[in-house]
Amino acid sequence: xxxxxxxxGEPVRQNVEFPSAGAxxxxxxxxxxxxxxxxxxxxxxxxGLDDHIADVxxxxxxxxxxxxxPDLYGxxxxxxxxxxxxxxxxxxxxxxxxxLSGAVDHLLTLPEVTSPTVGAVGFCMGGxxxxxxxxxxxxxxxxxxxxxxxxxxxxxxxxxxxxxLGHFGDEDAAIPAxxxxxxxxxxxxxxxxxxxxxxxxxxxxxxxxRRPSYHRESAESAWSSTLDFLxxxxx
Length: 235
Known about the structure:
This protein has one domain: Alpha/Beta hydrolase fold, catalytic domain (Rossmann fold), CATH 3.40.50.1820. It is 36% helix and 26% strand. The protein contains six helices and eight strands; from the N terminus they run E-E-E-H-E-H-H-E-H-E-E-H-E-H. It has helices at residues 51-62, 81-89, 93-109, 125-136, 177-191, 216-234, and strands at 12-20, 23-31, 37-43, 66-70, 113-123, 140-146, 163-169, 196-200. The two termini are 12 Å apart. The model has no long low-confidence stretch (mean pLDDT 94). This is Dienelactone hydrolase family protein.
């Protein structure tokens, strides 16, 4: 696959407000140096919309995407696992999906967005929300869950229209091989889409370069394939 030339310059980054789920939502928007490109929803880990997610948004924008990272915690960021777990549990899945659908609404109204559909990329809790969102919103055509944690039962994938590229660590005790296989089978049986679930020699959160769990080789491989996947699906 021939890659388009990478835009030169710096992404334009800003905090934004937009209507979602009957209220005013907040998020972080990163536009590519070229000014326009396909749209991507970026979904936070259980820590919140922190500096790592803002950095990933900028990296995606540098590659030519218009990226919106919605703030699912209303401005709060966790500082330890207990706090992160509590904040995740206090966010009902249905409410999170409603907020994310509102973010898709907003992203697709931006004149800079050149794609009729969007990609969704998320990590940990956000990876689970990628699957929840794609299962109900056909405007998501490319779903990329990184070690996605699904809270409770799998969603009904019969309405899924997105191709799925998943990234998992084979040392991730939270998402064992049996769970990955159940996910693969559920997506395939219910939607007819055969997800590409890739496994790396790493543990949970291997992409987060601000955590001890970071595994450079796995992160770089997953990132490269994610960019190719998004370009192909959102062209």
